[in-house]
Structure formats: structure tokens, C-alpha cells
Amino acid sequence: DIQMTQSPSSLSASVGDRVTITCRASQSISDYLNWYQQKPGKAPELLIYAASTLQSGVPSRFSGSGSGTDFTLTISSLQPEDFATYSCQQTHGNPYTFGQGTKLEIK
Amino acid sequence: EVQLVESGGGLVQPGGSLRLSCAASGFTFSNFWMSWVRQAPGKGLEWVANIKQDGSDKYYVDSVKGRFTISRDNAKNSLYLQMNSLRAEDMAVYYCARVGGWYGGNSGPDYWGQGTLVTVSS
């Protein structure tokens, strides 16, 4: 199975900060990498697919990059509604594994 | 508007069975792969199973193989997950999700239901 490792596991930041979350795959997954945002008690929402394509309706302050084994999710200027848990997922090979999640908290 | 509504969760004893259902609307159900994804309390997301548009291909995470069966009824716009021989570690919120399709079956979910809680306890 392909292991997905996110860092950091948690992060404290302030409104207006630039934040980067990293996701590393245990083997090359090309660009079969998606990012999700989840708020407490809610279902996840797709932010980025194919490593760098912004899902329709997602604010442009979110961006994704990377290919192969190393990927990043960047939020250019944190807004109050961005405090949530972010997870990456690879869909290169079954099982389609998720990272453990990064909890973004208000400083 | 895409809507996915799960039902069928509840309390079940270890070794018992449950059948989850997901009613889909707002899109052409038969055109999309579909998934089940679960989340144990306080834990991360875990992909459980995928099913192809016509039901001909199905994939499972190893931990549920031989116990869970994913199926669909395109005439009823419905997705199912039959769960047998349930274990404590299967306790989770189970989400029905539409597979986005940008890379065919190798895509992630783009729409999710609200989830249904499965509790496995004696």
C-alpha cells in the first residue's frame, strides 16, 4: 500500500498568514493527489485535485503543487473560515490512502 | 445540485451485519464511479471501497475484504454497502461519495454525503 505522510500534524497560525502543508507519498504517484478540507462534524470538501487543479468554487487563495512523491497545499492568506483539518489522498493505486490530516488552529 | 444521503447506520453487536444505503440525486448516477469512505471517532479518513459505473469492477481496502460488499442500483440511483462480521474497529462515520472522474476510476471524491454513524458494541 502507498503510505501518505502529512506534516505538520497540527499548526497554529493567524488570520492573514501564509500557510503550507506538506504531503509525502511512499512511492511515486505522479499527480494523483487530492486535498480535502474538513470542519468538525461535517463531511470533507474537495479543494484541489490532480495535485494542482482548483475545484470549482474554491477560493483562489488555495493552491497545490508537486508531482511524484512530494506535494504541498498552500493557503496564501488565511481567513477565519479556513481553520479546519486538511487531508491529502492518493488515487494512483488501490487502496486509495489518505494522509493522517493536518489540524490548522487559530493562534 | 448534487445530493448524497446516507442511511442505515446504527448500533450493532460485534459479529453482526448492517446495510448502508446512499440515495443520489442532482447528477446522472450511472455515469460515475462511487465510493464509501469512513472515519473512526477522532481519526483520519479511510477509503473503504469503490464501484464502477456499471458495477462490473469493485475494489476494497484489505481490512474489509470478504466482509463488506459494495453494490449499486442505477435504476434507483442508489449505492449500498453490506457489512457483515462487524468488528469494533469498523465503528466509524461512513460517507458515501461520488468519484470525481478527472482520472476515471483513479479519481478522488468530489461530493460527499453527510455520513451515517455505525457503532459496533455489545
The tally of beta strands of chain B, per DSSP, is 10
**Largest sheet of chain A, order of strands side by side?**
2-10-9-4-5-6
Query: What's the gyration radius of chain A in Å?
Result: 13 Å
**What is the strand content of chain B?**
over 45%
Apparent shape of chain B: globular
Chain pair sharing the greatest interface: A-B, 26 and 24 residues
What's the rounded overall pLDDT mean of chain A? 97
Low-confidence stretches of chain A: none
Structural Rg of chain B: 13 Å
Instruction: Going across the biggest sheet of chain B, name each strand in turn.
Output: 2-10-9-4-5-6
Topology:
The complex is a heterodimer of chains A (107) and B (122).
Chain A lengths: L3 E4 L2 E4 L5 E7 L7 E6 L6 E5 L3 E2 L7 E6 L2 E6 L9 E6 L11 E5 L1
Parallel strand pairs in A: 2-10
Antiparallel strand pairs in A: 1-3, 3-8, 4-5, 4-9, 5-6, 7-8, 9-10
Chain B lengths: L2 E5 L2 E3 L5 E8 L8 E6 L5 E7 L6 E3 L7 E6 L4 E6 L8 E21 L3 E5 L2
Parallel strand pairs in B: 2-10
Antiparallel strand pairs in B: 1-3, 3-8, 4-5, 4-9, 5-6, 7-8, 9-10
Can you describe this structure in just a few lines?
The complex is a heterodimer of chains A (107) and B (122). Chain A has 107 residues and is mainly β. Chain A has no helices and ten strands.
